[in-house]
Design a protein that fits this description.
- The complex is a heterodimer of chains A (332) and B (338).
- With 332 residues, chain A is mainly alpha-helical.
- Chain A has 14 helices and four strands.
- In chain A, the strands form two sheets. Chain A has a two-stranded antiparallel sheet with strand order 1-4.
- In chain A, β2 and β3 form a beta hairpin.
- Chain B is α/β, with parallel strands linked by helices and 338 residues long.
- A six-stranded parallel beta sheet of chain B has the order 2-1-3-4-5-11, with helices on both faces.
- Chain B is globular.
- Chains A and B meet through α2, α10 and α12 of A and β7, α8, α9 and α10 of B.
């Protein structure tokens, strides 16, 4: 069963996978920035890097989980902003905020369930299903909530802890990201369900013919990714006291996808894992942090980012050329 | 003599009666010019193409304009592209094709609609730009004096971050969208203040895209690099709460002054009270909306005047709001405007 999390064309000896390429680039950048920038290597800055990618990373863990199963979830940002905005909105009716968050989580899970059903049972290709659902989810939210920016009630102790608290000096946002990543890693590697996700992603038809419950597996994936998106939204609300639904219009969902693909989870499914997501997230984190410190202009930041990301993909293409098997499995 | 007295009385009575009659007829007399005004604006068609109606300032404007339109019988349609520039271009093209009497536009940047605005004027449609200008000047602009806004905000930081008692001379400019009118003109004002105060040191100049989480990330990174940072200035209160959150997380609320501008919504005042922001230069969107409403009436009343033949500019009010005056009309709620 091709469930090792690695593609099967890795042959004798050491072969630099895309993940290794990305880690190597991260290390090089880290060394260059450490040598050239003051305070880059300080404990505070390292924590700042992690904190600044915690939301991106959390979303990417959810996205990675779906992509491993040969899906894609473009609803994540819409679900994140609308789910949290819904919780804040109903809390303005006088409902306890914690209860409102639970209601938001239920709503989000229901959206995930619907997406999963559309993909697994109605068999709409995931890229189209999730693109359309993202738009309808955001659109509905946009009609219901008058404002783009919704502020959480100011005196919720646990939400303040999520934003400002820390455990052993590590900010809660990073702890939550770490916990989500660790749980997902264990889930994918150690549980039977996790292995089934790889099997479904690697070859859905074979998985189904063998008798695996592929449809329930796919539906569960979208429910979980929606709940992870909601978690990322809660982290954001804790950090900046509110949620900005206009994030749906930003490039965030592509950044999430980029982190996943960059880290080495192929869009053709069945490969990679949480480690790849973390590698991609950290590269983006180091790059953004260094360029912010260097005070590069917006345009040059985007340019440098794209060149490095393109470079990583190109190096991978050279080291791991496509063979018959990989090209047959196809990308999206 | 008696006859004369009687005559006088009779005359006075007659006059009094006449007077009453005149008052009565005066009650039916129209206010001077009102009929022409009503005639001028009634049944006219106005289309508004905003950046996004999800923003507090837009909601305030449209509430004011809808009330004005309902009272005087013209129609106002809002074609909301919801932050999507391509949708905005389509909305503008559609609006021009419909040949309304007036198009109101809030430009996402100075270039995107520049040609479309010329087309609209060439087609004889008057154009009122609100708060965000295009490179093309049209009949009217109602909104902020953005250069003054930049001067005010950086001037506020100059007060705190120059002189012997300043914690440092390091300041940060958290921009919005770099091609937007607000950004471009504020930068001019900022540069003037920086030139006048050479000791001020602009250590970071990054766009936060009007998104609070981005503002937070930039601020957090900059604070690591410059722990003695003195001030931050931004472009929209709803985004700079992110900068405030990063400063609060670092425990530097007493050290770092955060200045921004905003529509004057109550949420901004809350952020001041929560200690996330120090000063908001409040451009009071409802008042801005009222000024624009009068400009709408003015443009509708003169259908014979060629579009683009006269160009007017109205700069709205700017009030400095801090902890001491974050109350009352400086903190409006949508329900207050209705």
């Amino acid at each position: 069963m091709p469930g090792s999390g690695q593609s099967d064309d890795r042959r004798l000896g050491f072969k630099a996978s895309q993940e290794v390429v990305v880690v190597a680039i991260s290390v090089v950048l880290f060394l260059v920035f450490s040598a050239t920038l003051n305070n880059f290597l300080s404990q505070g800055n390292i924590i700042a890097i992690l904190k600044n990618v915690s939301i991106l990373g959390t979303l990417a863990v959810g996205m990675g989980f779906v992509v491993v199963g040969r899906g894609i979830d473009l609803t994540m940002v819409a679900v994140m902003v609308v789910g949290v905005a819904f919780s804040i909105w109903i809390s303005t009716w006088g409902i306890d905020f914690t209860l409102a968050v639970i209601c938001g989580a239920i709503l989000v899970a229901a959206i995930g369930l619907f997406t999963g059903v559309m993909v697994a049972i109605a068999e709409v290709p995931p890229i189209f299903a999730t693109l359309a659902i993202a738009s309808s989810v955001y659109g509905s939210g946009r009609i219901v909530f008058a404002s783009d920016v919704l502020y959480a009630p100011p005196d919720i102790a646990w939400l303040k802890f999520v934003g400002n608290g820390s455990v052993l000096g590590i900010p809660m946002s990073v702890v939550i990201f770490g916990a989500v990543a660790a749980l997902m890693g264990l889930f994918l590697r150690k549980t039977r369900f996790g292995r089934l996700v790889y099997a479904t992603g690697d070859n859905p038809n074979a998985a189904r013919t063998t008798g695996l419950p592929t449809r329930p597996i796919i539906v569960t994936q979208y429910v979980i990714s929606a709940l992870i998106a909601f978690t990322a939204g809660i982290i954001m609300t804790g950090l900046v006291t509110g949620i900005d639904t206009r994030l749906y219009n930003s490039s965030l969902i592509y950044d999430v996808l980029l982190v996943v693909v960059l880290g080495g989870i192929g869009l053709s499914g069945g490969q990679g894992g949480v480690r790849n997501v973390i590698a991609g997230t950290i590269l983006v984190g180091i790059l953004t942090n260094g360029m912010t410190i260097l005070n590069f202009s917006y345009t040059s930041q985007n340019l440098i980012k794209s060149v490095i990301l393109l470079g990583a993909l190109a190096i991978d293409a050279i080291i791991n050329p496509r063979d018959e098997q990989t090209s047959q499995s196809g990308d999206i | 003599m008696k006859i004369f007295k009687k005559c006088l009385l009779a005359g006075m009575a007659a006059l009094a009666l006449l007077g009453v009659a005149q008052v009565a007829s005066a009650q039916e007399t129209d206010q001077v010019g009102r009929a022409a005004y009503l005639d001028g604006v009634k049944g006219k068609k106005v289309i508004f193409v905003p950046i996004s109606q999800g923003m507090d300032l837009n909601q305030a404007w449209v509430m004011v304009w809808q009330r004005h339109a309902a009272r005087y019988g013209f129609t106002l349609e809002v074609r909301d592209p919801n932050g999507d520039t391509n949708a905005g271009i389509r909305a503008m093209q559609g609006a021009i094709a419909e040949k309304p009497d007036l198009i109101i536009v809030q430009n996402p940047d100075v270039q995107t609609y520049a040609r479309l605005l010329k087309q609209a004027q060439a087609a004889g449609i008057k154009v009122l730009q609100v708060n965000m200008q295009s490179a093309t000047q049209t009949d009217s602009y109602v909104g902020n004096d953005w250069i003054e806004m930049g001067r005010l905000e950086m001037g506020e930081l100059a007060k705190h971050c120059t002189g012997p008692n300043a914690v440092s001379h390091k300041v940060v400019w958290l921009a919005g969208v770099q091609t937007g009118a607000a950004n471009i003109y504020m930068r001019t004002g900022i540069d003037e203040v920086l030139k006048a105060n050479p000791e001020l040191q602009l250590v970071s100049d990054q766009p936060a895209d009007y998104i609070s989480e981005k503002a937070r990330q930039i601020t957090e990174t900059v604070l690591q690099q410059h722990p003695d940072l003195c001030g931050i200035m931004g472009i929209w209160d709803n985004a700079e709460v992110g900068a405030g959150a990063a400063v609060a997380a670092a425990g530097k609320q007493d050290q770092v002054t955060i200045v921004t501008n905003g529509a004057g919504a109550a949420t901004g005042c809350e952020s001041i009270k929560n200690g996330l922001l120090d000063v908001i230069f409040n451009f009071n969107a409802p008042i801005q909306g009222e000024i624009a409403a009068q400009q709408i009436s003015e443009l509708l009343q003169h259908p014979d005047r060629k579009a683009g033949s006269e160009k007017t500019i109205f700069f709205g009010p700017i009030t400095r709001v801090d902890k001491t005056n974050a109350t009352g009309r400086n903190c409006w709620k949508p329900e207050d405007i209705k």
